[in-house]
Amino acid sequence: MMQQPEGTALPASTPTPRTHRPIAVLPVARQRLVGAALREGLIRAGFDCLPESQTPEAALELARLAAPDVVVLDVSASHPDPAAAVLPWSTLDPPPRIIVIDDTRSDRSLRRCLLAGARAYLLLSDPESTLVEAIGSVLKGQIAISPEARPRLVTGESHPPGYPLTRGDLLSPRERQVMAQIAEGRSKRQIAEILRLSVKTVEKHSTSLMRKLDLHNRVEVARYAVREGIADR
């Protein structure tokens, strides 16, 4: 069972649902095949699975009528704003626990989804058992994070309660500037001239940001910068 990572304390969830009825789960997926696969897996695991919805409007209307305990929200397939997809669910009374399924592997998406109210963040590539475990965790008031995404969260750092940090939050403004220039394909000397720094200082910032993000070369740095919106595509 996945445990709440240290340093990512979020507002307490609503109480665990009554045990005299099956746990009701509503899958919401933009892609029909993904929704069907989610529904099949949830039924196989013994949950009371509501019909999957492909649009936010239909899903919210069904949730108002059926009051699911958990909503499994697929924000993969290049969703324009995963966090924005989470926010409307907080208007329900009572609000269901939201489990986000993403495919971006973006630090920014992970942090923003948690801040928007998601109780779990999984990846589309995670096995079915991870989703089942996540449902159990969120019903206990815990935060569940995909094993693959978990290293992207910062633990043991001093930061405001309820504000999850990712590796990207550790970058200084200057390191972000250097990263953006690296993503543009510029050399250290060119970066130094543009930012009015010494080459040695640029090297220092480059080494520091790669260490913080566990990146190993300029190609990985460029990919991270584009994925996180630090540099243009």
Task: Identify the notable features of this structure and list them briefly.
9 helices, Arc Repressor Mutant, subunit A, Rossmann fold, 6-stranded parallel beta sheet, 233 residues, 6 strands, 2 domains, elongated, alpha/beta
Task: Give a brief outline of the structure.
By secondary structure, this protein is of the alpha/beta class. The protein is 41% helix and 10% strand. It folds into 2 domains: 24-152, Rossmann fold, CATH 3.40.50.2300; 171-227, Winged helix-like DNA-binding domain superfamily/Winged helix DNA-binding domain (Arc Repressor Mutant, subunit A).
What does this structure look like?
There is one protein chain. This protein is an alpha/beta fold and 233 residues long. The protein folds into two domains: 24-152, Rossmann fold (3-Layer(aba) Sandwich), CATH 3.40.50; 171-227, Winged helix-like DNA-binding domain superfamily/Winged helix DNA-binding domain (Arc Repressor Mutant, subunit A, Orthogonal Bundle). 41% of the residues lie in helices and 10% in strands. The chain has helices at residues 32-44, 56-66, 82-86, 107-116, 128-139, 173-183, 188-195, 199-213, 218-227, and strands spanning 24-28, 48-49, 70-74, 97-102, 120-123, 144-145. A six-stranded parallel β-sheet has the order 2-1-3-4-5-6, with helices on both faces. The longest helix is centred in the last third of the chain and has 15 residues, at 199-213. It is elongated. The two termini are 38 Å apart. Residues 1-18 and 157-161 have low confidence and may be disordered.
